Amino acid sequence: MKVFESVEEWRKHRAGLPRNLSLGFVPTMGYLHEGHLSLVRAARQNNDRIAVSIYVNPTQFGPNEDLAQYPRDRNRDLALLEKENTDWVLLPSDAEIYPPGFSTYVEPPEPSRLWCGQSRPVHFRGVCTVVTILFNLVQPTRAYFGRKDAQQAAVIRRMTQDLRFPVEIVVCPTIREPDGLAMSSRNVYLSPEERQRALVLSQTLAAGVERFRAGEREARVILESGTRQIANTPGVRLDYLGIVDQNTFAPVETVQPGNYMIGAVYVGKTRLIDNRVFESPGGCV
Ligand code: AMP
Q1: CATH number 3.40.50.410 is the correct assignment for the domain at 185-277
Q2: Catalytic site includes residue 13
Q3: In 3-state terms, what secondary structure has residue 125?
Q4: I need a surface site. Which of 134, 160, 180, 198 has the fewest CB within 10 A?
Q5: Does domain 2-172 bear CATH number 3.40.50.620?
Q6: How many angstroms does the Cα of residue 214 sit away from the middle of ligand 1?
Q7: How many Å lie between the centroid of ligand 1 and the Cα of residue 226?
């Protein structure tokens, strides 16, 4: 496994690779867990070589968010990636990604407008900008994202299509703790009590999917009971709950298979997001 801290060194290396080599790419912010590693494994299975980036991207954090506290553990991350047979790791500094004078940002597409886009106004602009930079540097054949961040995946799919990046976007399932909590680097912020309370989000989404399975089709009805469930949990504040089209992230009135139920909550100061897909009665979307 080779670690690149210098973008210039990486560019030289990339330029020397054969044209027909397939390259799988997994962009991350580090503090890796099984969710990230599932993407690395999917990339490993379907490509000749794989590259993982670890970069806590400052432009996707708002001024009052957790950029400074965001957990980091470079040596642990590198050991985990080594075990997964990662070929190359990109570990750029802020100055490498945003050199002096940098001033071009990508305007995020329509699926970014609501939900996380409303709660975190600069977030998707930062995501689209850094993913564009990384796609240009890495020039991957395929890039892997988690469905845990379903709106982000929809935004990146749309951007990739609109800007004609020659990259196949692969979205992999959400990896959860045994009790249902979606894995997230931010779970480390939770006290034991908060960790217990945080379960209400995955439980509310699972209950929504269950109501659909039992025959309910009105989004409003599913959302009202979900909102109540979260409001009744002390120490948890609802940011949003919605039922959306999986591509546009526009809200739907009548739920159909393939729609997502999405939610964001604050557990104490920690903001967590999660989603579940409504499946057709046969189990497939
Ligand atoms: P992050 O380091 O949080 O920016 O995440 C990097 C990538 O890992 C993104 O594509 C996330 O959607 C994905 N990811 C994060 N958590 C999970 C999870 N629990 N299951 C699957 N993918 C995940």
Answers
A1: no
A2: no
A3: helix
A4: 180
A5: yes
A6: 30
A7: 24
